[in-house]
Amino acid sequence: MSKRAVLEVIALDVEDAVAAQAGGADRLELVTDMAADGLTPSAATVAGIRAAVDIPVRVMLRLADGFAAGSVERLVDAAGAMREAGAEEFVLGFLDADGGVDLDAVERLAGELRGCPWTFHRAIDGSADREVLRKRLDGMAGLDTYLTAGSAQGVDAGLATLLAEAGRRGEPGYEQQLLVGGGLRLEHVPVLLEGGVDAFHIGGAARPGGWSGPVSVEAVAEWRRVLGG
């Protein structure tokens, strides 16, 4: 690796954010309600975390469990509220009933974000055809990252797909950074690094006490050590 690998940590509140930064995280994904796999947090939480840390924060735009967009107007309103609270980077991703990308919803939100960088999250792992999804989103304003485990079943099942996609970096539809997360464990890191993956996303792995407990500085620091830098 010629550069430091990115370590992104899920934060639910200011305490998590401060601990993640202290442990060496490069970026936060800010959500609420992990029982629903992460929804849009409150504007107050966004403002508090932006005031507490100086690393980038990506804020989730998702109002209900699953990958359906639901009310696009509500999503647009949420995006506006998050921007007013200081959010400058985002996470989103929606599928239609057939498992294809919901291009109307994604385009509408990307337009609302006006060039802010954003991640298309693990909806890609639930899509009917990941390559078609990537090609349809090719050139979308602000899209610079895909968060993926390579499979809806997690990194164990998706490892071969992740390595294959890392090997296609730079092709049309594959220019974005591959951010690996979803059942990610430290033992996966060496083969992913060797395969060219340079960004890693952890949630439960940063919380030895589970989701009812806070982010651990020590746990994040161990990931930072293994990733280098």
Automatic annotation (TrEMBL):
InterPro entries: CutC-like, CutC-like_dom_sf
Domain of life: Bacteria
Family matches, as Pfam families: CutC (PF03932)
Gene3D superfamilies according to UniProt: Copper homeostasis (CutC) domain
GO MF term list: copper ion binding
Family: Belongs to the CutC family.
The protein, known as: Copper homeostasis protein cutC homolog
Organism the protein comes from: Streptomyces griseoflavus Tu4000
